[in-house]
Amino acid sequence: MVFLTLSCWIRSRGPDRYWKVQEVLKHARHFRGRKNRCYSLAVRAVRRAFVYATKGRRLKQRNMRTLWISRIAAASREHGMKYPALMHNLTKTSVQLNRRVISDLAITEPRSFLSLAKLARARQQEGLRAALGDGKEPAGVFSRVVLLQ
Questions:
Q1: Which residues are CB-contacts of 121 (< 8 A; sequence separation ≥ 6)?
Q2: I want to staple 97 with a disulfide (CB 3.0 to 4.6 A). Which of 18, 32, 58, 101 is the partner?
C-alpha cells in the first residue's frame, strides 16, 4: 500500500492501533479492577506481569538445579561419595551428562548411577595414586607426599 500524502498515512494507522490495544488488553483480561479495561492502566500492569514472569522462570531454573543437586548428593552418599567429589571425577572422566540427567538416573535407574559412581571412584583412586606417586621424590625435593606415607 503506497501513501502519497502524510495525512493518508496517519489516517490509515487506526486499525493497527486497535489491534495493538487489543493485544495488551488480551494479556490483562484476568486482572482485577480497571486494569483489565483501561488501556493506560493495562499497559503498566502487563509490563509488570511480564517482568515477574521472567523473574519466575529464572527462579524456577535455579530451584530445579538445587533439587537435582540434592538428589545427586543423596544418591552419591548411598555409594560412599560426596557430591563434589562425584561431579569432579565424572567431569575428569569426560562423562558428558548434566545434573538433570544424572538425577533422573539416580531415581529411575539406580544400577546405571552405581556404575557412574564406580567410574568416579576409580578415577578418584587413580588420581590419588598419581598424586602419591611411587614414593620416591627426586633428590633435593622435599614434599608433603613423602610425609604422608
A1: 79, 80, 81, 89
A2: 101
The torsion of the CA quartet 27, 31, 33, 38, rounded to 10 degrees, works out to -10
What is the chain's length? 149
Alpha-carbon gap, residue 56 to 149, rounded angstroms: 53
Distance CA 67, CA 73 (A): 10
Q: Are 39 and 50 a contacting pair, CB within 8 Å? A: no
Q: Shortest CA distance to 26 belongs to which of 13, 39, 14?
A: 39
What span, in angstroms and rounded, lies between the C-alpha atoms of 123 and 74? 20
Q: What is the largest CA-CA distance in the chain?
A: 93
Q: Which of 100, 96, 111 is nearest to 71 (CA)?
A: 100
Amino acid in the structure at residue 122: A
Which pLDDT tens digit goes with each residue over 18-56?
888 999 999 999 999 999 999 999 999 999 999 999 999
